[in-house]
Design a protein that fits this description.
By secondary structure, the chain is α/β, with parallel strands linked by helices. 65% of the residues lie in helices and 10% in strands. It is built from 21 helices and 10 strands. The strands form 2 sheets. Strands 6-7-8-3-9-10 form a 6-stranded mixed β-sheet. It has a 4-stranded antiparallel β-sheet with strand order 2-1-4-5, with no helix packed on it. Helix 3 packs antiparallel against helix 6. Bound molecules: adenosine-5'-diphosphate and magnesium ion (MG).
C-alpha cells in the first residue's frame, strides 16, 4: 500500500485531471445504473396486459414522491399506466427504449471523458519518473556504479518504468473507479432489497480474501522477473561492447548459452506471472457467480413463496444490477493483480531514486574561483568499502605547488588512480582531507572544484557526436576559432582536416571510428579548450603505440605548459622531467624526489626504471 501512495505522490502534480476523471467516472457509473434500472419499467410494460391492475393504479391517483424504492416504483407505475391509457403499451415501450439509449449514451460519453483526462496523468507520471531517474543518475557518486550492473540500471529506467505505466497507472483508474461503481450499485441494491444485499455483503469479503492471497505471491515472481530482465540487459550491453573480444576468443557459443539460460529462466517466470494474472479474471467471475446463485436461490424463494415478499420485476431488475457488479469486481481484481506485479518495478525504481548521494555540495560553500598556491593531501586514507580491512590509500601526505608537475608511479594496483580520483571528489577520503589553497575541497561547490580541473584518462571517453561537439563538450559560448586552436595544440587538427566532413564528422559510439591515438588527441583538445589550471593525466599515453604516443605526448607537453599537473605514468621515460616523482606501493608513498635523486637513491624507483630499460 505504501508504494501505491508513493506513486500517488507523482499524481499530485496532476490533481486537476484526477478530479475531472473522478467526476466523470461517477457520472458514468450513475448513468450505467439508470440504464440497467430501466429494466424494471420495461418489464412492467411487457406484463401490462393486466387491465384490472392498471385501472387500480390509475384510480389511486398520483402517489406522493419520496426517496424510497417503493415510492419510486409506485411513481413509475403510475406514470406508465397513464401513458399506456392515453396511448398504447407500444408507445410506452418506445419511450423506455429512447430513455435507455440516452442514458447509455451519457454513460459512455462520461466514461470517455474520464479516460480522456487520465491519459495526461498516466503519461505525465511516467515522464516525471524518467526525468527523476535520469537526474538521479547524474548526481549519484561513482561508487554507486561500482556495485551495480549498467544493464540493470538501464532496465530499470526503461522496462520497469514501462511496467509501472502499464500495470500500475493503467490500473489506478480502475482501483478508484470500480469501487465507486460497486458502492453505488450496492446502495441501489440495498434500497431494493436489503435482505438479499446483506447476503452479498457477507460473501464478497471471502472472495476478496482468496483473491488477495494470490496477488501477494505474484509480486515476488514479478521481482525475480525484473531482476532477470536487468541481467539480460547487462549481457546484451556487455556483448555489444565486447564483440571484438567475443569473436576473437570464439566465445560466441559460450555467451549465447549464458544468454539463453537467463532468457529461459526469465521466460518461465513470465509464464508463471501471466498464468497468475490470468487466473484473476476467471476466479473472480466464478466466485462472483457463486454469490449470484446464492442470491438467485434466496430471492427466488422470496418471489415464489406462498405469500411472496418480493415483486418478480423488482427481483429481475435486482439481479440485473447484481450482474452489473460482476464486471467491475472482475476488473478490480485484475487491476489489483496488475498493481501487485507493477509494485515490484516500483521498488526497483525507488531503489535508485532513494539511493544516498554521498558526494554533495556543502551547505555553506566557500568560494574557490581560482587556483593560486598549492594542493595538499593531508593524512589521506581511503578504502572503497569501509567495512573491509586494509586501506587502498594509507596516510598519504603530499603537496603540489602551483605550476609544478608531479608524477605518480608504482605498480599497477598501488592506488595511483584512486589518489587522482579524490582530487575532483569522485571519491571522498575516508580519513584526512585534501586542501586547495588551504580550503578543504569538501567545503567548496562541486562545480567550482571540478571547474578547476581537466582530466585525460587512459581510456578516452567520447560521445557519439561530431568531432566538433566532442571537443566543445560541456562548454558554452565557445567559438569555432577556439575549437580549431585547441585541436591544433592537441595535434588533432591535421587528421581532422583530412576527413571529408572535417569537424562535422561523426565519430561513432565511444569514438570507434577513430584510432586510439586520434581519440586521445581529441580528449586532449577537449582539455585544452577547457583551459583548466589543474591537470590530471591518468596513463594518458599507456594504451598507445610508440608513434602515436609521440604525437600525443607532444600534445600533452603543450597542454601541461603553465599548468599544475598530476601525471600518472606507466612509462617512466615520459615523466623523467617531472618536478617531483612519487613512488607508490600498496597505497603508501615509499619514495619521492626528482629523477636523478631517486636513481641515485638506488631504491624502488631505480628498480622500476631498470626493468623498463630492458624493454
Ligand atoms: P592503480 O591506478 O595504481 O593501478 P587503483 O587506484 O586503480 O590502482 O586501484 C587501487 C586498488 O583499489 C586496487 O587494489 C583495486 O583492486 C582497488 N579498486 C580500484 N577501483 C575499485 C572500485 N571501484 N571498487 C573497489 N576496489 C577498487
Ligand atoms: Mg590506474
Amino acid at each position: 500500500m505504501k508504494n501505491i501512495f508513493g506513486i500517488l505522490q507523482y499524481v499530485k502534480g496532476y490533481w486537476r485531471y484526477a478530479v475531472l476523471n473522478i467526476i466523470f467516472n461517477l457520472l458514468s457509473a450513475v448513468f450505467a445504473l439508470f440504464s440497467v434500472a430501466m429494466l424494471f419499467p420495461f418489464l412492467q410494460v411487457l406484463f401490462s396486459d393486466d387491465s384490472k391492475k392498471l385501472k387500480e393504479i390509475l384510480e389511486n391517483g398520483k402517489p406522493e414522491f419520496h426517496l424510497s424504492s417503493a415510492s419510486i416504483i409506485e411513481n413509475i407505475n403510475y406514470f406508465l399506466a397513464t401513458d399506456i391509457q392515453a396511448h398504447s403499451p407500444v408507445h410506452a415501450l418506445v419511450g423506455i427504449c429512447l430513455f435507455i439509449i440516452i442514458t447509455i449514451f451519457f454513460k459512455n460519453l462520461f466514461r470517455y471523458l474520464g479516460m480522456f483526462f487520465i491519459a495526461p496523468i498516466r503519461n505525465g507520471v511516467v515522464k516525471d519518473m524518467r526525468n527523476n531517474l535520469f537526474k538521479k543518475i547524474l548526481v549519484l557518486p561513482l561508487s554507486y556504479y561500482s556495485d551495480e550492473r549498467k544493464g540493470d540500471i538501464m532496465s530499470r529506467m526503461t522496462a520497469d518504468v514501462r511496467e509501472i505505466e502499464w500495470s500500475v497507472l493503467s490500473s489506478l483508474e480502475m482501483i478508484f473507479r470500480e469501487p465507486v461503481t460497486i458502492i453505488i450499485s450496492l446502495v441501489f441494491m440495498f434500497l431494493m432489497s436489503w435482505q438479499l444485499t446483506a447476503i452479498a455483503l457477507v460473501l464478497l469479503p471471502i472472495v476478496g480474501l482468496v483473491i488477495g492471497r494470490i496477488g501477494k505471491s505474484l509480486r515476488k515472481t514479478s521481482t525475480e522477473e525484473k531482476e532477470k530482465t536487468g541481467i539480460l540487459m547487462s549481457i546484451m550491453d556487455e556483448t555489444l561492447g565486447g564483440l571484438r573480444i567475443i569473436k576473437a576468443f570464439n566465445a560466441e557459443k559460450n555467451i549465447k548459452q549464458k544468454f539463453e539460460k537467463i532468457n529461459n529462466d526469465y521466460t518461465s517466470l513470465m509464464v508463471k506471472a501471466y498464468r497468475r494474472v490470468d487466473l484473476s479474471s476467471p476466479l473472480s467471475e466464478f466466485m462472483g457467480i457463486t454469490v449470484f446463485v446464492a442470491i438467485l436461490y434466496v430471492g427466488g424463494k422470496m418471489v415464489l413463496g406462498n405469500n411472496p415478499t418480493m415483486n418478480g420485476a423488482v427481483f429481475i431488475t435486482y439481479l440485473a444490477l447484481f450482474s452489473q457488479l460482476i464486471a467491475p469486481a472482475k476488473s478490480f481484481t485484475t487491476a489489483y493483480y496488475n498493481v501487485q506485479k507493477g509494485l515490484a518495478s516500483t521498488e526497483r525504481v525507488n531503489k535508485i531514486l532513494n539511493a544516498a548521494v554521498t558526494i554533495t555540495d556543502p551547505l555553506e560553500p566557500k568560494t574557490l574561483v581560482s587556483f593560486e598556491k598549492e594542493i595538499e593531501y593531508k593524512n589521506v586514507s581511503f578504502a572503497y568499502r569501509e567495512a573491509e580491512a586494509g586501506w587502498v590509500l594509507n596516510n598519504i601526505n603530499l603537496k603540489i605547488e602551483k605550476g609544478k608537475t608531479i608524477a605518480l608511479v608504482g605498480q599497477s594496483g598501488s592506488g595511483k588512480t584512486t589518489m587522482a580520483d579524490m582530487l575532483p571528489r569522485f571519491y571522498d577520503a575516508s580519513q584526512g582531507e585534501i586542501l586547495i589553497d588551504g580550503i578543504a575541497i569538501k567545503d567548496v561547490k562541486l562545480a567550482d572544484l571540478r571547474g578547476l580541473m581537466g582530466i585525460v584518462t587512459q581510456e578516452s571517453i567520447l560521445f557519439n557526436d561530431t568531432l566538433y561537439n566532442n571537443i566543445a563538450f560541456g562548454l558554452e559560448n565557445v567559438t569555432e576559432e577556439q575549437v580549431l586552436e585547441a585541436a591544433k595544440i592537441a595535434n588533432a587538427h591535421e587528421f581532422i582536416s583530412l576527413l571529408p566532413q572535417g569537424y562535422q564528422t561523426n565519430i561513432g559510439d565511444r569514438g570507434n571510428k577513430l584510432s586510439g591515438g586520434q581519440r586521445q588527441r581529441l580528449s586532449i583538445a577537449r582539455a585544452v579548450l577547457k583551459n583548466p589550471p589543474i591537470l590530471i593525466l591518468d596513463e594518458a599515453t599507456s594504451a598507445l603505440d610508440t608513434e602515436s604516443e609521440r604525437l600525443v605526448q607532444d600534445a600533452l607537453n603543450k597542454l601541461m605548459k603553465n599548468r599544475t599537473s598530476l601525471v600518472i605514468a606507466h612509462r617512466l621515460s615520459t615523466i623523467q622531467h617531472a618536478d617531483e616523482i612519487i613512488v607508490m606501493q600498496k597505497g603508501e608513498v615509499i619514495e619521492h624526489g626528482t629523477h636523478s635523486v631517486l636513481i641515485a637513491k638506488n631504491g624502488a624507483y631505480r628498480k622500476l626504471h631498470e626493468l623498463q630499460s630492458f624493454v
